[in-house]
Write a structure and sequence with these properties.
219 residues; 3-stranded mixed β-sheet; 63% helix
């Protein structure tokens, strides 16, 4: 009753995707953004901000919602949970091995302790980079699935450009670094080169270019 058009659009897209109807939440924030979560399609949640509903055209909104439903269908929440667990495990093992190397009794017998220590320090970084790469690949996959579902890749491309501009001007108040990967675009804006390297999202330019390429392909 609070947002009948939103409810209707999600229900239509979920039916076309062969998914059960997810729960829908509206975030009281003027910055446009959206995310999906849930351990399975039967326990899925889609959340959109008030700002998203305010600025999106109907076809752009459908593209954003289709993107979030693609995350549900592809079980990306589970995939990212596994990736995060693996990264945390590698970091923990490397940390334990580093302290064992520093305080171990056999360090005099080690031929290259500095090299071993450097390797153990780089292992958590490598694990984090792998986790980020998985996250970025899931965003590309969700974009492609959404474009196929709606048949309008350019609508999603236009929506992404609007979202990027808005989040650069005014970052999302309700986002935190721990939840940033959930949103369709980085809620803190693109940032500088280093920030982009360690971002959970691919650049909007890359995503838009891929969607534009999809629009030129024969149906």
């Amino acid at each position: 009753a609070a947002a009948p058009e939103l409810h209707r659009s999600v229900a239509n897209l979920a039916q076309r995707s062969g998914l059960p109807m997810p729960r829908i939440f509206i975030i009281p924030d003027a910055t446009p953004n959206a995310f999906a979560t849930g351990r399975s399609p039967h326990h899925a949640v889609i959340a959109v901000t008030e700002g998203l509903l305010r600025i999106m055209q109907e076809d752009e909104l459908a593209g954003v919602l289709a993107h979030e439903l693609a995350h549900v269908r592809n079980r990306d929440t589970l995939i990212m949970a596994v990736a995060a667990t693996m990264a945390a495990t590698i970091t923990f093992i490397a940390d334990m091995a580093r302290w064992a190397l520093i305080f171990g009794h056999d360090r005099e017998e080690n031929n290259n302790p500095i090299g071993d220590l450097l390797l153990l320090m780089l292992a958590p970084l490598a694990a984090m980079l792998i986790q980020l790469a998985v996250s970025r690949s899931r965003e590309f996959a969700a974009d492609a699935s959404a474009a196929k579902l709606t048949g309008r890749p350019l609508s999603l491309a236009n929506g992404l450009l609007q979202l990027e501009r808005a989040n650069q001007v005014q970052p999302l108040h309700h986002a935190t670094p721990a939840t940033a990967h959930l949103f369709i675009v980085n809620p803190f804006g693109a940032g500088g080169l280093i920030m982009r390297m360690f971002s959970t999202h691919p650049s909007i330019q890359q995503r838009v270019e891929r969607l534009r390429q999809m629009a030129t392909l024969p149906v």
